[in-house]
Amino acid sequence: MTGSVLKANARKLIFENTPKLFFISLIYVAIGAFISWFAVTLPGNIDLENMYLRLSSGEMFTITMLYSNFRLTGVFLAIIFSLFQPIFDIGYISYCLKIHRKQETTYKDILNGFLVFIKVLMLFITITVIVMLWSLLLIIPGIIAAYKYRLAYYILLDDTSKGVLQCIKESSVLMYGGKVDLLTIELSFVGWFLLDIFLMMLTPVPFTIPLVSIWIAPYLGLTRVGFYEERIRTLAS
User: Fold this and answer.
1) Which run of H or E residues covers position 67?
2) Domain count, the chain
3) Lower CB count within 10 Å: N or C terminus of the chain?
4) Residues 6 or more apart from 151 whose CB is under 8 A from it?
């Protein structure tokens, strides 16, 4: 099944599940935007006042300057707070899976990640470490690793009794021969993301909900679910 067909099916499901789907997407996007904003602006995260003074004195901005203004306590708290993002991500994936499978959905589905809280965190941390290690070699191996394990969360949702390493292994099998296909599909959404960033830049407030993402989230989410279902059918055949 081509990416265009998967995207067309996603659009059809979106319109069939309006307006509830957009309301859930608004909650999900707002939570993600708040987590990102709070993690960056967390008190003690970065000594912004010192950076401003150094830049005002004519000093050029460098990575070394940025690192020298990190406050470890704030950075640690920001990392801990950011770990809640994958919990809500898997909740939204759960919601999209139910829509795609014509199952009954509720607003509580977005909290399903908390039902497997520990496994989600362990899966997130394990995949992040693996991808980072591959990225130390070159950027391409890192990208390949990221797409190799992209379906691990879906596999966990389908059977929460599976272990972290089992989900990673099964994702590797499902994605064999499909990594480029998923990359191509996701690249087709770049225009939407650029539009979202542009509109956010025009908003003169510290915390902004990326409004275009309320459309992107279900569109991309349901397209990915369709891809996952197609990979399962391909493997079964």
Assistant:
1) helix 63-68
2) 1
3) C
4) 170, 171, 174, 175, 228, 231
